[in-house]
Amino acid sequence: xxxxTRYAPSPTGFQHMGGIRTALYAYLFAKKHQxxxxxRVEDTDQSRYVEGAEEYxxxxxxxxxxxxxxxxxxxxDFGPYRQSDRKAIYKQYVDQLIESGHAYYAFDTAEExxxxxxxxxxxxxxxxxxxPLFRHEMRNSISLDAKEVAALLAEGAYTVRVKIPAHEExxxxxxxxxxxxxxxxxxxxxxxxxxxxxxxxxxxNVVDDHLMEITHVIRGEEWLPSTPLHVLLYRxxxxxxxxxxxAHLPLILKPEGNxxxxxxxxxxxxxxVFPLAWEHPTTDESSNGYKELGFFPEAFxxxxxxxxxxxxxxxxxxxxxQLIAEFSIDRVVKSGARFNFxxxxxxxxxxxxxxxxEELCNDAWTAKPPFVGEDDKDLVAKLCDLLREKLTYPADxxxxxxxxxxxxxxYDGKTVRSKWKGENKDKIKGLVDQLKALSNFxxxxxxxxxxxxIETNSLSFGNILLPLRIMLTGxxxxxxxxxxxxxxxxxxxxxxxxxxxxxxEKMTSES
Length: 511
Ligand code: GLU
Description:
The protein is mainly alpha-helical. The protein is built from 21 helices and 14 strands. It has helices at about 15-30, 55-65, 85-100, 110-125, 145-155, 200-210, 225-235, 265-270, 290-295, 295-305, 320-325, 340-350, 355-365, 375-385, 395-405, 415-420, 420-435, 445-455, 460-475, 480-490, 490-510; strands spanning about 5, 35-40, 70, 105, 160, 170-175, 180-185, 190-195, 215-220, 245-250, 250-255, 280, 285, 335-340. The strands form six sheets. The protein has a three-stranded parallel β-sheet. It has a three-stranded antiparallel β-sheet with strand order 4-5-8. Helix 13 crosses helix 14. It is elongated. Bound molecules: glutamic acid (GLU). Glutamic acid (GLU) binds near residues 10, 201 and 205.
């Protein structure tokens, strides 16, 4: 049997990275077993539909290279893959359940339902209001006589509810959690279908997983409580033999492990929980995304892979192909997975180090400051190479390299005063003359010249190198000053040295 997994998001908002991790695990599992990965959009709850959410899901998968074999936007033989386009399919299965006595019509109004809920709550019974023990007390085709039912059905406002059997233990076999048992008396007679012709999530989900021949349902832990109902539906519909295997993934937790990593929690901690940036179409909510922050898709995949799974070895860096080869559900953990933003940045740096200067330059280019010219690409690629170890994101290059594009407008006064004086001043001038005479103005020759000069004159490195750096860049820290000079080029470096000497002179004579 061919392995088929699916990612079945609801377009009710923008997918949190937990959702994308579900997609990744479903993808990895399918690919590992030469199977198919399906994207199904579960949009039965039209009232919660958010414009743009479906595109967001597809864009996120595309960014990460998790290409579905079938699904909304990808074609395939089991379509349509959007549940609202499958509306006509569900009714026959709902009718089948009613005919076989596993579902029934219910006519309770919202007020009646609330009243019952309150009553049960007050009595402190653990059973839900609409459940095997209480359904007789409600208005439905079980409690009312046939004539009344026919009249109410003719009025047209009804729901179809599943008839949960009383006093049964429903067993869910989960590939991650093992055997989980549920008492049927504590389950509710969930609504499966509404008179507007739309199935609810549970009904559509089970019918579609069956019709789409899904073999493994991989989804978040929050769906585990729904699974006994799904198991019963497979049984009631006669599909128990081909019921998919279930695997419920652990929650993604805040860095300290104290609760779910929600958007609100992450906002407070100063990092996003979304793959891509978004703006809500109707509220003023928005969020930044990992892509826009400067994360590489490979890094983001690697981060997500480790949120709940580990290879059992020390290896931390995995390409998508390596993940496909190594991934197994057996190594997915039950307990919540803490998300650590610093560790996520570490992954990005690891990937950043493997990129060429040109690649980093291309990634950083859209964020280039106005003082960088269109024809500066070669220079920026060199700067990316030079500064690679200091970058977390490609666009960090701009803040670290401003002085390559703009001559210093001021110099560190304290350093200038301590170095531009007496004999040291003359020594610096002497060095500048030697550099002027240098015909091969490359880092190695500059370094040889400077070091030779320091040694021959028995000078201290700090007294010469620091002022030299400040003359060229205006600041104290940065990469090798010899490399900086080479990249600036001889003409520019010499001009800067001249300008600086004049400025230093002025600064020290004033004080
Ligand atoms: N539509 C559900 C969601 O939004 C899918 C749950 C499942 O995978 O069965 O997460």
